[in-house]
Amino acid sequence: MTNNEFKQWAHELVEWIGDxxxxxxxxxxxxxxEPGEIYSALPGMPPLEAENFKQIFxxxxxxxxxxxxxxxxxxxxxxxxxxxSNPSILAEMLIAALGAQCMIWETSPAATExxxxxxxxxxxxxxxxxxxxxxxxxxxxxxxxxxxxTARERISDYRTNENGFRGEPAxxxxxxxxxxxxxxxxxxxxxxxxGNLVKVGVKDDxxxxxxxxxxxxxxxxxxxxxxxxxxxxIGTTGTVAIDPLKAIGEICSRHNIWLHVDAAxxxxxLLLPEYSWLIEGKEYIDSFVFNPHKWMFTNFDCSACxxxxxxxxxxxxxxxxxxxxxxxRGKVNxxxxxxxxxxxxxxxxKLWFVIRSYGLEGLREKVRDHISYxxxxxxxxxxxxxxxxxxxxxxxxxxxxxxxxxxxxxxxxIINEKLNHKLNDTGxxxxxxxxxxxxxxLRMVIAQTNVKRTNVEKAWELITGMAPAxx
Length: 471
Fold this sequence. Notes:
This protein has 471 residues and is an alpha/beta fold.
């Protein structure tokens, strides 16, 4: 492809992207294809000769698009969002065009220094103390893994990096029974062993019970285990439960245990001054993560990871082969020492574009709107004779179920699962489910960048209209 052809097609693709975003509600939210359908439509062998880009793009529209789930649809209420926005998309175009590998300061000084600045903006805006330093990772899974490995090296005085776990006691990691699966994955990858992840019981609101945490730690100490890290969650995946950070932090401080906070989705609510209570006890935090690529309208991937002592993080991950030695080492941040990968994308650019394009007040307005829409939906559920809330309303996430009179719990689980699939099969909305004390619950997360209350009203009308017909 020549540069002139590139410019021609770039213009056409931008027009297509603009039309797609403008008309996205016309697409079925969830892909309406069968397993293997896309695979079967693709040739078994790659082409030997160059193909015309017009045909490539035509195949994208004819083969790929039918198999896409449209995460940017305002009728997308599933999982946690992976939002984008117009300024973020434009930044991604520039990131791709520059093609920079931003592993160290010298490979692109602007990328490093912009990252440092925007992470300080975020730190101050969400209310973390100013001694925290931040780095952009790809996902919260990676951020959490980096935190657990750093906690491991802190408690072992960096011996496990040198010698493995030979001669070390069993290190224990604590998290609530509602914690995200990425915690268990990180525990396995970091070498602790899944058997050393202690799942702590929860209170009625599904947040971690500090009393049970304290008992678990004391029990482990009595057995000769070594408590290493507690993972507190601000916004669990199932119900967005908020763990009591201050009480947990006091326990960690008493036993000198690393406290990591997973606020992957809900951390964006800290943009709002009225939600500063979410991190009461922040003085006890050692590491903290939230994902602007979830609820802060920044293209995936962009995970904001903060640490109280960046020196510990760097000491854990730094390695200095000859080809990475520079004259500026020690004078600047070389972010390849702040995590697992050597290679790094220029993620800070899209975060900078988003923050500047919306402004803090524009971001806050959107987040407040989403919370208000969730509150509206929760009120409708409570008012309806045949529906009930299955968990307390938390921020932008509503967990509920269809509960007609005269059905036992097993039948209710079956009928709600059927309802979930029927709703998604319409293509009009996409919701997911969770299980709460073995209750199959419908789960709506109201957080897509351009969602409006009319989208929530339409979803509720569809749900209440379809439910009575489910057998």
